[in-house]
Specification:
Largest sheet: 7 strands, mixed
Shape: globular
Number of helices: 24
Structural class: alpha/beta
Distance between the termini: 13 Å
Length: 682
């Protein structure tokens, strides 16, 4: 007899609520909608509130809180969660009426961007978004939780996972099609109608009104902003002239990002664009050039004007390439010498076997995070010592590597120069083009003879932070610490969450028997973060890799549930041993070794190493969950644990991502210590 067969579901009062959909399809729709809505909120709010472009994890934590509260509400009320579409409509209106964008009239530093923000201050808008995200997600979670008592524990969990995979698949497909948010709003409206459709006419009208508000407001945004929606950004652009020079200004998520101008004018206006060629001894024979961060094409156009015979243009965002191909005045992407690659720059370096006379990192500044599950930016792995060593290995004899940007801080220029020195074995050329914003160009030849410096770099000082590495790729974090703004914010989130749990779910004693399941949620989120960041390094920080990893995690969880349902698996102490062994294996296998493997073999080994502990952890959860007395409370406790795990993820800023495995291992040991005696011997 399997663990699932040993547990007889106890119907909840809510289980008697009649619905035109039977339990299983209703559970799939509700769980799929829950994950879809979470991803859409993370994506859309970040595109309209500039603070969230750097703190996407903020919305994720609110979502986890809401989902946990939704499960804990099951059994405490028989009312349908009509509050969810109402709060969603209010959130959409607030964000569109009071967006937080960059103020071009005020100079300042906003999260490493040399501009200030207009709109509501972060201390006001961020709590509103956090609370709204929690309340919105609480509704679908409550609907999911009401299905659980009607089914066997693991069968319910199985359909929940199938729905989650459906939700992430739908959102990924819409991302691939570059669907605007009005489509996401239409999906939400249909899902609310399917799940909440009441019998009474006036109740139906009350349900339709907020859904129509959401769809209408998002349609107005789509039509008035004229935005392109890439998998990473809301991209807006304006074409015009300045002193008879054609140009195109491109903003992403409300932040000035790029300007497409003719190469000759850009070289006249800003000296930094010419310096990589002046500092390179190979400038007179540029047979092969690699440009990472090719964007709308100005850097490519400059390389062609400097005599490049072949240019590999790497850009992670397909919409930026599309704009450059259609509207750049020089039409550089129409030149037969140019080959475009839509991928992550670090991933391209790891995969290509080509050699170059010049490799150029052209203002790669993503302005956003990889996902809501990590503090990793899209370009984080481009600026580590290992990345610069990879660039060095792809230079021809006499070739050079160069990067330029507005680095904003002098210590940041020195850190990058010191990183380049560590990778190349000699001092690079450092040109400070402008003290304002620390506009600088840093260039290193394959050898010191391959570079032509205008003056010698003074070298790192006692105040210069050490080079970043692949384990801690936090270029803009000067000290090995968690910034105070994060500590205050996370502390407030935890306090608010504790109060919300008490107000919505009642006494904490309801969850006391499931403290071990709470800790399982904490540790699992850390495992998921480690997987996301690890695969981003091994295969690229693209949205496709991100979606595949999240789907892979859900498939591993589903496989664990199916194995637990269908077979007699070892007792929990044994499975905890397998889990800890998997964590040890993941700790012992370094990413540097995996990067040295051929791509197909790397994929196989990485999947085994990353998903073995995930599989074992979910066998542990499935066995324990199957025997829980109250499935919805147990599941809610686990989800609240995941929210706390999202807070602990910031420990990576101090200890690195690899050490998160140690933190997860300690938390899993705590969960085992709190395992009820009957579960331990059963």
């Amino acid at each position: 007899m399997t663990a699932a067969a040993e547990t007889t579901p106890t119907p909840h009062p809510d289980a008697r609520h009649e619905h035109w959909l039977s339990t299983r399809p209703r559970l799939v729709v509700a769980s799929g909608f829950m994950l879809f809505l979470e991803l859409a909120l993370i994506r859309w709010t970040g595109s309209n509130i500039v603070h969230l472009s750097y703190f996407t994890n903020f919305v994720l934590l609110g979502s986890f809180l809401g989902i946990g509260l939704g499960f804990l509400r099951v059994g405490r009320t028989t009312r349908q969660p009509y509050y969810s579409p109402i709060v969603l409509a209010a959130l959409v209106l607030v964000v569109l009426l009071f967006p937080v964008t960059v103020d071009r009239q005020t100079e300042g530093v906003l999260y490493w961007t040399s501009l200030s923000a207009s709109g509501p201050p972060p201390w006001l808008i961020l709590p509103v978004v956090f609370a709204a995200a929690a309340i919105v997600l609480m509704g679908p979670a409550e609907l999911v939780g009401r299905c659980f008592p009607e089914l066997d524990r693991l069968e319910a969990y199985r359909y929940d996972l199938i729905g989650s995979l459906t939700g992430i698949g739908l959102f990924t497909a819409l991302s691939f099609l570059s669907a605007p948010p009005v489509v996401w709003g239409a999906v939400a409206a249909v899902a609310y109608a399917v799940l909440l459709w009441p019998r009474r006419f006036w109740a139906r009208v009350a349900l339709l009104v907020p859904s129509l508000v959401v769809v209408g407001a998002l349609a107005v945004e789509t039509l008035t902003a004229g935005a392109l929606w890439s998998p990473y950004y809301k991209v807006t652009y304006v074409r015009g002239y300045w002193n008879d020079v054609p140009l195109m200004n491109i903003d992403v998520n409300g932040i000035p990002h790029q300007q497409a101008t003719p190469a000759r004018n850009r070289l006249e206006w800003e000296r930094q664009y010419a310096l990589p060629y002046e500092r390179s001894a190979a400038a007179g024979r540029l047979d092969d050039v690699l440009i990472v961060g090719a964007g709308s094409g100005t850097d490519v156009s400059i390389a062609l004007s400097k005599g490049a015979r072949r240019v590999d243009a790497v850009e992670i965002d397909p919409k930026l390439l599309e704009l450059g191909r259609s509207h750049h005045p020089d039409r550089p992407y129409d030149d037969p010498r140019v080959t475009t690659h839509v991928t992550d720059g670090r991933a391209f370096l790891e995969r290509t076997s080509d050699k170059y006379d010049l490799i150029l990192f052209a203002l790669p500044d993503s302005l956003t995070l990889v996902s809501g599950a990590s503090s990793l930016r899209l370009e984080s792995y481009l600026f580590t010592q290992q990345a610069m060593e990879a660039a060095r290995d792809h230079l021809k004899p006499g070739g050079s590597f160069s990067m330029y940007n507005y680095y904003r801080e002098s210590w940041l220029v020195d850190r990058l120069a010191a990183t380049m020195q560590a990778a190349f074995g000699h001092k690079p050329c450092v040109d400070i083009v402008s003290e304002t914003g620390q506009q600088a160009v840093i260039t290193a030849g394959l050898t010191s003879d391959a570079q032509r410096c205008g003056g010698e770099w003074a070298g790192a000082t006692a105040e210069t932070p050490p080079p970043t590495g692949d384990d801690r790729p936090f270029l803009y974090l000067k000290d090995r610490t968690i910034p105070e703004i994060y500590l205050i914010t996370l502390g407030l989130i935890l306090i608010v969450s504790m109060l919300a749990v008490r107000a919505v779910a009642g006494p904490y004693t309801r969850m006391r028997p499931y403290t071990d399941l709470f800790l399982l949620g904490v540790a699992f989120l850390l495992l998921e973060t480690k997987s996301v960041t690890g695969f981003a390094l091994l295969f690229g920080t693209t949205w496709v890799v991100n979606a595949i990893v999240f789907a892979g995690v859900l498939v591993a969880v589903l496989a664990a549930v199916e194995v637990t349902r269908r077979f007699r698996v070892p007792p929990l102490p044994v499975m905890y041993g397998v889990l800890l062994a998997g964590l040890l294996l993941a700790w012992l296998v370094p990413n540097s070794w995996l990067l040295g493997l051929p791509l197909p073999l790397r994929a196989v080994v990485a999947v085994v190493v990353a998903f073995l502990p995930i599989f074992a952890a979910n066998v542990v959860f499935a066995k324990r969950f199957a025997d829980s007395a109250d499935g919805t409370v147990a599941f809610g406790a686990n989800l609240l644990g995941a929210m706390v795990g999202g807070c602990l993820e910031y420990l990576a800023l101090v200890v690195g991502y690899q050490a998160l495995l140690i933190v997860a291992g300690v938390v899993y040991l705590g969960a085992f210590a709190l395992l009820p005696r009957t579960a331990r011997v059963g």
